[in-house]
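Customer escalation, tier 2.

The customer says the design service returned an amino acid string that "doesn't look like it belongs to this structure." They asked us to rerun it and document both sides in this ticket. The original structure tokens are below, unchanged.
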């Protein structure tokens, strides 16, 4: 009943926002990017490509909103802002002469009408894996909510290697133009047909790049432009971000789903013959069913798993860590630190030459939620603080 009330509330707020700001989405070429993982990197790569092509472009992602060159903080733990702010940002983009907007679109945004009234010129879907079942109830509902973006998009970009997702998408793209991308299966955009060099690590980032390239191609960007951007693009803050690279490396990444952890840790595992030390937690009052799956992913690739807090809110952090630990097989090296700063300090002081410390879950975020209070926080700053005291 509460969720129904929220949905109705958001719907009427969206109607009001569209009327107040005059349906600015109709005056723009809006590219929507959705999926469980990879949205922010894909959106940012596409944004950089469009800028390099001299197309006046704004962007709204989980990191920030950049409207006509001006950066705005979108709030704590926010990817797609409320419909009021989305419409305001779109109107500001129009007012300042921008013609394109890259918009990161969450399942909550789709389910809560935050992007109501926006005609998407291009809709990109990266992947759909286990996440947000606390809100959607079932995986089927979650998938359908994500796929609803395709119905509202003039042209669709699909990951062909996600066979199940591709099959589910077919009913949504009948009589639509669509472009597929991928590495393994037959696809229209792949490393052979669209070769590029990149500084980004991991196969998952190749997928992110291909998705952005596919969207850029739809928008008429020349190959020479996206090749140039891909060769120099260094990544997004809090996404496989190397904070220290001396005798051992320290990496901060936003991975907070089982799938994202698997991909990030698999990549890091290939980067060293020494130990992988993994610091992570799981958010409170969110999808608890993923916690043991996250523990399993960590134990598969990490030599040492260090469990800690990650916005536990009003849940018991010890309980959360216990649920994560339930997915870690006996015999694995596991430590628990309720305070994130203690976990990071222990990880760094434990690291030896050649090791990699990877800290996941917070990425770019600037706060930790304990109880009902947001406390200032930065994984990057904490890492540097510990290193400076060694």
């Amino acid at each position: 009943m509460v969720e129904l009330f929220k949905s109705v509330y958001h719907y009427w707020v969206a109607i009001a926002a569209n009327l107040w700001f005059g349906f600015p989405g109709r005056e723009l070429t809006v590219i929507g990017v959705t999926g469980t993982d990879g949205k922010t990197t894909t959106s940012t790569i596409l944004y950089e490509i469009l800028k390099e092509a001299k197309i006046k472009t704004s962007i709204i992602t989980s990191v920030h909103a950049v409207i006509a060159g001006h950066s705005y903080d979108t709030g704590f733990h926010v990817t797609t802002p409320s419909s009021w702010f989305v419409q305001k940002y779109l109107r500001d983009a129009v007012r300042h002469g921008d013609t394109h907007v890259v918009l990161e679109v969450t399942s909550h945004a789709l389910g809560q009408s935050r992007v109501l009234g926006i005609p998407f010129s291009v809709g990109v879907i990266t992947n759909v894996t286990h996440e947000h079942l606390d809100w959607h109830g079932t995986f089927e509902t979650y998938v359908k909510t994500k796929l609803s973006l395709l119905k509202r998009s003039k042209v669709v970009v699909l990951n062909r290697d996600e066979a199940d997702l591709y099959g589910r998408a077919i009913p949504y793209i009948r009589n639509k133009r669509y472009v597929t991308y991928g590495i393994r299966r037959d696809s229209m955009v792949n490393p052979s047909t669209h070769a590029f060099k990149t500084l980004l690590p991991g196969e998952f980032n190749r997928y992110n790049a291909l998705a952005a390239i596919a969207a850029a191609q739809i928008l008429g960007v020349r190959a020479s432009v996206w090749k140039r951007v891909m060769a120099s693009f260094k990544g997004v803050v809090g996404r496989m971000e190397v904070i220290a690279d001396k005798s051992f490396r320290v990496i901060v990444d936003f991975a907070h789903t089982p799938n994202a952890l698997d991909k990030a840790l698999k990549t890091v595992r290939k980067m060293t013959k020494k130990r992988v030390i993994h610091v992570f937690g799981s958010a409170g009052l969110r999808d608890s069913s993923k916690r043991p799956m996250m523990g399993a992913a960590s134990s598969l690739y990490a030599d040492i798993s260090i469990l800690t807090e990650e916005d536990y809110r009003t849940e018991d952090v010890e309980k959360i860590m216990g649920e994560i630990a339930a997915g870690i097989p006996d015999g694995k090296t596991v430590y628990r630190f309720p305070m994130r700063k203690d976990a990071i300090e222990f990880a760094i002081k434990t690291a030896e030459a050649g090791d990699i410390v990877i800290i996941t879950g917070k990425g770019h975020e600037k706060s930790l939620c304990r109880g009902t209070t947001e406390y200032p926080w930065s994984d990057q700053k904490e890492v540097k603080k510990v290193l400076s005291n060694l």
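Tier 2 assessment: The sequence is consistent with the input. The radius of gyration is 21 Å. The chain has two domains: 2-232, 241-388. Sent an explanation to the customer and offered a walkthrough call.
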